[in-house]
Design goal:
The structure is a homodimer of 991-residue chains.
Chain A lengths: L9 H4 L12 H4 L4 H10 L5 H8 L14 E4 L6 E4 L4 H13 L5 E2 L12 H8 L2 H4 L11 H18 L3 E2 L6 H14 L7 E5 L4 H13 L3 E5 L3 H7 L3 E8 L10 H9 L3 E6 L10 H4 L3 E5 L15 E5 L12 E5 L5 E5 L6 H4 L12 H39 L3 E2 L8 E5 L3 H11 L1 E2 L1 E4 L2 E5 L6 H10 L6 H8 L31 H4 L3 H12 L22 H4 L5 H4 L11 H18 L3 E3 L5 H18 L7 E5 L5 H8 L3 E5 L9 H10 L4 E7 L11 H10 L3 E5 L12 H4 L3 E3 L20 E3 L35 H34 L18 E4 L1 H7 L3 H10 L6 E2 L6 E4 L7 H22 L17 H5 L9 H5 L19 H6 L10
Bound molecules: pyridoxal-5'-phosphate (2 copies) and bicarbonate ion.
The site of one pyridoxal-5'-phosphate has 16 residues of chain A, from α24.
């Protein structure tokens, strides 16, 4: 009877809602108003949307049920399916709150790589909840990205310092995938081409599971062993490397120095999966001889979030300097000779190396890496050590108390935060723990374990004493330990000294940046200072083709900050995570509905990870029907670099398919190759609309040919923003499809991650979906795990869920239509000035289009890069540069951009075309003009000499609005060659 | 037994806490580390803090119990007092959550000026939760404040457009004080010097109460009448004006055109207290002839917050253009001739007019005004009208349904959102309502009323039907109303048309700014664009003397966003607001403890409002003991302008007291005047440490003299940051004291408000503390109300509460010590370069100090303003300019500034001194140099001609760090004279 909030609209559908809410979301998300859209259509010569769409999308590609307005849903309590109207922003806020409340916050000491943390509020508000940090793209345009590049440099310095290794990348997806990357990197560099990888048995099960899955595609034999120097000798003929966990899964700490020596003596390499906080106290992997260290920065200020997103770290010694996977930030200089950061060694990446790449990592965890770096900066070396020491001391006290109460501790020799305890009945301990409000880990029927963390209080300690029925209180126990000496904190106890033989002796984080910003005011200013150098969606459109940089709305982001989503351990008991389960199911329901698929997995935590997972699923399926020999993957030459790299990782042989001059796939070539490889055809990877931004005709026939020849169709969903509500990948003939939720479905790009790359599959593939060794999920005949946690980056799924539930099916369709219209509107405005590389037979593009800059090379000595850099002077982020075609610019406005912004951008490009014309006409010299000298930072202006053939004013205020509203590049053009030659990837040491 | 969170530490105090949390707050709040403080002390020649303090604070001023560490507190459930240790940041987060949960969220339709709202999430995150907006100071330095000045201009435009009047100020404190300001402004301008003010009886009781209190000091007779043209004629001899509420308190709407004509015919002026949302539908006060319109912008996107803060608006016709109270933003131009905003007509303000001022308004509600402006911008004229129409339609439907069920509606003729309903038994209706989850208003035993708002849903309407036992559902009722025509929203109903005779016919908000930013992306960018022009604490220190611009920490701000604090109506039943009550009590307990007072009131919503309230309390007390004739208030000439203005408002005659050449109060003069006026001495207002930044000796003797002569001591707590934990105002002899919680106690300044100015009093004054006519609070013999709501700006009290509970008594004492040390450190660094105007006998200052610029006038033609503007080129905000002494700069660093930042600032001032020396030495010309031409915006640099006697580089990068980290002024120096002559205070109309 009371006013209550409904998880679903079940009660509303039964009655008319005469009082629709006014805070509807779709009109806030979509840039142009209805009137403006009419204007846009009319400039293109259309009377209505339908006739426009007919010219853009082939008839047989359009989905049948074009007019459905609402998604199906199901009632939280009754589980009955029904149709849910769209939620307004405030209604959604209530829904999200209610779903979050279905999760139970129980203090979880399960550990296994996930710990309670105290995120400094200054970082939450100023980074995590700040669009100027989370709406940035990967810092390809270095001159307008110096802030987060500096932050990533801090991150890399933190990782190298703590691990004792010389180089770190700028993050990977999580600990387990980082371990897999290490395995593959070492394997690829093994001179003896050995194929066995030894893994210590004392390792987290999820890491092992991901290693096993990853090993399959590379034919690596993962051999689980009890680590010892003898094991090395026994396996040296076959094994290229070995992975140990440090501290180990049961909490033990071993000194692996001898092991490392033995391994090196056998030309094997050693990987340490390790813990950054423990490394403030213990000897580093670098010191005892590890070649690679991997792990997660979760406990450096990142919410557990039911498993992610967290930054996976990866550090290695100099030997692998130019081999390590992922992005790498380096210090170079700009043309004026000033120091400037940039992404280094890009040539290693898969968009260059394609199927020869050994890693497909693209989107990583930039935002999370930056948060962790700020966490380390805020605490500084002393603060971090303090946190670690406190944890160690408490663990030690508890250990002694347990022992004095007669418990046998498995890892009694050396430990940091984790105790593995032999008990009579694990279940009854777990039950007692739950009664006190704690989750512990059940290792086996007679063994439990628990991990301490920075959140532990006096009260927690008391409760743990009670749970284990220790006949004392912490107070008296501690007083006894201190021999009657009066003490007021655990630091004064003898138990707080980390054992000498394992103790770290080397200093770390001695750089200024880790020693200045320890007050909230200083850290806030440092964060804001960095942010002020970076262009984000909060400043201007970021029209990066294939990246779909759309609005990341506050209503979508809000639930991510809810503690009941943020503070859930991925291995929390099922009955504590009903909220997450509901959300994940509901999101899956909508994605399947949109695309016509039957099952989904949210485990892949990037698009590339989805590709790899999807292809692995295909292979497992084929194997299961006796077609395991199929190993050919057809991929169009125009495909994104992750496609061939992922195919290679799944153990497939890539056969490229040609494109025609008009950009379309060469159907004849495809057909020929499909038929030729008919017996071995495993899969075809298709991106639709194509990476050239066109809805190709004949896609159905194409996919038919694949099926006819025994292959499966992998659908790359990167361009899904053109299709949502209009076409269904499933109908077109796809068997698997990944979504980049960080593109089409509003998860912010975070400056290079997080991302989510769920895959949807047809029913025949459902049994093979990724699983997790700890938590039941995925298919019956699963390929195993593809990432550390059961549902990947679960805690950001509310963003996409919010987007879809607020937009509704009709709103999403409107968004796609607006995205198509915006792109065509811009293309039409720009066509008189720039050649469009491809359009369809009606002269239309899909949601993006490619501008040709190739002709300017001859006519004016200008390349696409020059245009990109010049756009910075106009306060814009460049379109995607030289992809998928060299010397072109690919523009994708998305539906969120307004007419005002698109016009501003077109005006800029038109003005730049005029500047090019002046060079063509000899009015400006080649090689020393507004474009080749771009961008023009403030320092350029300030110099007294001005020897340019144009005025200062033209350089920086080429259009009037800029004198009012200008975003400045902070450095001049980067010198890439210099940077790659002189690789500096950590902060300069303190002078 | 379970893990649970404690409202207090009661259970902890009984046991030792061996596991103190590491996320302690005080070290994050205070800038310098312990090591740095030792260094600071050593540069001043001290070995320890104690010897330093001995030189700064007179011995007899120091508080006795110097070493107490903890504040008292009381247990939430048992109400037992006890001592509470300091909370760490995360512990405080839990405490705040728990206290918030003691408030009950019941949907409240009580209205009376407070409504449920839907705050657009884009505004919450990007303004309300964004330090770049909330940490700004009042925009005195226009060149680095163009963003919020533009926003305030938008606000002023919104208010004038909606009220139909020609000029609006940039906000007042709330509706009731705005009404009082209107009354006094009109009175002061009445040529016939009449003294009666007519007030329609159909008005909110809180407005009436504040009017009555305010009237007392001015000897105005507030006469409550039933409004009619005859009333005007009957009272024209005595009455200078009349106030009507539009819509009236019972929800009725009357056309006041005739009334206004009659009033004008009698040379009376008309004030309308009105509602912005209703004004989108109804004829404006300007159109029917009101001279002034006042009200609250709460329902334009501001949380109810248990009563505040909200922006009070004030608009008037041209007649009062130069008379209206409060700040006024005007469009002027800068020296380069470009348009630029600034605060206009500053000469009207009380720091110039002192006791002749008729208003003491200083801190207002800038942040809230800006939020409301963004709300209007986001919705635009169409959107606002839509919201209003929906409310009107629903009210109309409910009215008809009630009538058809036999209810008699009092305001049946015309209404907007409020219905006053005659019922059998109001209590039983209220009870039924509560059972359904709603609060309605009880008007009397047989009358209830309710107000609809933008949050009303279908479900709410159904529940209202049930509460009133209407024998129908909204659905069938609406279907019947529509005569069987199929309708899908209320807008299609005939009931949705606002009555023609009252309907607004004029357009509003036609300016570009209200018609472009309707998508979230566009509004986010507009907000961020404005913010990018403004220097805030997120960029650099703001060393404004007497303003205490310290850290506003995220942990302190977080609870303000909690819906259980934000969404509480000030008149919610007592048993729904236990959380607020606990918090307010606990905060009062701490403030009283700090200062040695006995009772507190949180009703004053600014420092000036506190002054006025405190003096009124003194007068009421004196009257109660037969000393009502006492009417002399002694005020030092050095006092802040609000002091004499407040005294005048309280009906006191100001007698200024001289200061000596050394800056100290002239004790002889004071004594002489106190004795001379002994029979009429009401009060003495003292600021301590003095406004010159010195802890004067002899303050106790001074205050003694006052008491000996029958006066009471009013203590201006603006400089409390120097005293907290070190000295107690109560011990010194003060009877009343106000706190600026927005200075000492961390409420952010918000660019000119919100603020909170609670007063504490000795026991003999407690009976007179402010009350509220609706909710029981305040003293038995209260002075009445001083602001609209019972606890003033209640929803920001959690900020100060957080600060105090996390710092603890010892932390606060450390903060004061650090504030004193920081000031003395800077003073010592600057002393070789600038004359310090005053120091004490040991050469020390308190928490701030004054730099003399007067000598440079002769030596270099340089004034303090030039130094202030030049500081902008160094990316700093200037210190307080020419207050309390003309041509000086008063510097207050606060404890939150780090050594690094203070040194950076000192380096800038030292470098500027060098620039002055170059003028003195003839190396740079007078009148055309780095200082007189400052600040140098980017446009200066871009110009081709550079005719300055210094380089571009020196102009903008005078010290090297600026080429890395520069905050730019966006316009050149403002032309104040031009602006005051040509007053433009609203946005330019659409071209
Ligand atoms: C077409 C295409 N496929 C795959 C990817 C890889 O996605 P992710 O960066 O999420 O790994 C991208 C990313 O830009 C892409 O554009
Ligand atoms: C000494 C002094 N008294 C009173 C005030 C007035 O306080 P408020 O601005 O809160 O009204 C101020 C404000 O700066 C002040 O410095
Ligand atoms: O949102 C920001 O905090 O800038």
């Amino acid at each position: 009877n009371k006013r209550n909030v409904h998880l679903t609209y079940s009660n509303r559908t039964s009655q008319k809602n005469f009082v629709p809410p006014l805070d509807t979301f779709s009109r806030r998300h979509i840039g142009p108003s209805k009137d403006e859209q009419e204007y846009q259509l009319s400039t293109l010569g259309y009377k209505d949307f339908e006739s426009f769409l007919n010219d853009v999308i082939p008839q047989n590609v359009r989905a049948k049920e074009n007019n459905k307005k609402h998604f199906p849903s199901f009632d939280f309590d009754t589980h009955k399916p029904h149709t849910a109207p769209n939620y307004s922003e405030s209604e959604f806020g209530e829904l999200a709150e209610n779903v979050a409340n279905k999760n139970k916050l129980v203090k979880t000491l399960i550990g296994m790589g996930y710990y309670n943390v105290k995120i400094p509020p200054v970082i939450i508000r100023n980074v995590f909840e700040n669009p100027e940090w989370y709406t940035q793209y990967t810092p390809y345009q270095a001159e307008i990205s110096q802030g987060r590049l500096e932050s990533m440099m801090n991150y890399q310095t933190m990782i190298t310092d703590l691990t004792g290794l010389s180089i770190s990348n700028a993050s990977l997806l999580d600990e387990a995938t980082a371990a897999s990357e290490a395995m593959v990197m070492i394997m690829a560099n093994d001179r003896k081409k050995r194929k066995t990888f030894l893994v210590d048995s004392n390792i987290y099960p999820n890491t092992l599971s991901v290693l096993r899955t990853r090993a399959r595609g590379f034919n690596i034999d993962v051999k689980v062993v009890d680590i010892s120097s003898e094991i090395i000798t026994a396996n040296e003929k076959d094994s290229f490397g070995i992975l140990v966990q440090y501290p180990a899964a049961d909490g033990s700490i071993f000194d692996y120095s001898e092991l490392a020596s033995a391994a090196h003596a056998s030309n094997m390499h050693v990987v340490a999966a390790t813990d950054l906080l423990a490394l403030t106290l213990m000897k580093t992997p670098g010191e005892w001889g590890a070649d690679v260290a991997v792990g997660s920065t979760q406990r450096f200020g990142l919410p557990m979030g039911f498993g992610g997103p967290h930054a996976g770290f990866f550090a290695c010694n100099d030997e692998f300097k130019r081999k390590l996977p992922g992005r790498l930030v380096g210090l170079s200089k700009d043309r004026l000779g000033n120091p400037a950061y940039r992404l280094a060694l890009q040539t290693r990446e898969q968009h260059i190396r394609r199927e020869k790449a050994t890693s497909n990592i693209c989107t990583a965890q930039a935002l999370l890496a930056n948060m962790s770096a700020f966490y380390a900066i805020y605490h500084g070396p002393e603060g971090l050590k303090h946190i670690a020491s406190r944890i160690y001391s408490l663990t030690n006290i508890l250990k002694r108390a347990l022992e004095s109460a007669g418990y046998d501790i498995s890892n009694k020799n050396h430990f940091f935060d984790t105790l593995t305890i032999n008990v009579q009945c694990a279940d009854s301990i777990l039950q007692r723990a739950l009664a006190y409000g704690y989750n512990l880990r059940k290792v086996s029927d007679g063994v439990v374990s628990l991990s301490m963390d920075e959140s532990i209080t006096n009260e927690d300690l008391s409760h743990l004493f009670s749970i284990f029925e220790i006949p004392s209180t912490p107070e008296t126990f501690i007083e006894n330990l201190s021999d009657g000496k009066s003490i007021s904190s655990v630091e004064q106890l003898p138990v707080s000294a980390f054992p000498k033989e394992l103790r770290r002796q080397t200093p770390y984080l001695q750089h200024v940046v880790f020693n200045r910003y320890h007050s909230e005011t200083e850290l806030m200013r440092y964060i804001r200072y960095l942010q002020s150098k970076d262009l984000s969606l909060a400043h201007a459109m970021i029209p990066l083709g294939s990246c779909t940089m759309k609005l990341n709305a506050v209503s979508e982001m809000n639930p991510v900050s809810n503690p009941k989503f943020a503070n859930i351990h991925p291995y929390a008991p099922e009955d504590q995570v009903h909220g997450y389960k509901y959300l994940i199911n509901d999101l899956g329901l909508m994605l399947k509905n949109l695309t016509g698929f039957d099952a989904a997995s949210f485990q892949p935590n990037s698009g590339a990870s989805g590709e790899y997972a999807g292809l692995s699923v295909i292979r497992a399926y084929q194997k299961s029907i006796g077609e395991g020999h199929r190993n050919i993957c057809l991929i169009p030459v125009s495909a994104h670099g992750t496609n061939p790299a992922s195919a290679a990782m799944a153990g497939l042989k890539v056969v490229p398919v040609k494109c025609l001059n008009n950009g379309n796939l060469d159907f004849e070539d495809l057909k020929a190759k499909a038929e030729k490889h008919s017996n071995h055809l495993a899969a075809f990877m298709v991106t639709y609309p194509s990476t050239f931004g066109i809805f190709e005709h004949g896609v159905k026939e194409t996919l038919n040919v694949i099926h006819q020849n025994g292959g499966q169709v992998y659908f790359d969903g990167a361009n899904m923003n053109a299709m949502v509500g209009l076409c269904k990948a499933g109908d077109l003939g796809a068997d698997v499809c990944h979504f980049n939720l960080h593109k089409t479905f509003c998860i912010p790009h975070g400056g290079g991650g997080p991302g989510v790359g769920p895959i949807c599959v047809k029913s025949h593939l459902a049994d093979f979906l990724p699983s997790n060794p700890v938590i039941h999920c995925g298919g019956q005949k699963s390929i195993g795990s593809v990432s550390s946690s059961p549902y990947g980056s679960a805690s950001i799924l509310p963003v996409s869920w919010a987007y879809m539930r607020m937009m509704g099916l009709d709103g999403l369709r409107d968004a796609s239509k607006a995205a198509l219209l915006n792109a065509n509107y811009m293309a039409a405005r720009l066509a008189p000035y720039y050649k469009l590389v491809y359009t369809n037979d009606k002269g239309r593009c899909a949601h993006e289009f490619i501008l040709d800059a190739r002709e300017f090379k001859v006519s004016a000595g200008i390349e696409a890069t020059d245009i990109a850099k010049r756009l910075q002077d106009y306060s814009f982020h460049a379109p995607t540069l030289s992809w998928p075609i060299t010397n072109t610019l690919m523009v994708e406005p998305t539906e969120s951009e307004s007419m005002y912004e698109m016009d501003r951008f077109c005006d800029a490009l038109i003005s730049i075309r005029q500047e090019i014309r002046e060079i063509e006409e000899g009015k400006q010299p080649k090689g020393n003009n507004l474009l080749t000298n771009a961008p023009h930072p403030q320092r350029d202006l300030v110099r007294e000499e001005w020897d340019r053939p144009y005025s200062r004013e033209r350089a920086v205020y080429p259009v009037p609005i800029l004198s009012e509203r200008k975003f400045w590049p902070t450095v001049a053009r980067l010198d890439d060659a210099y940077g790659d030659k002189n690789l500096f990837c950590t902060c300069a040491p303190m002078q």
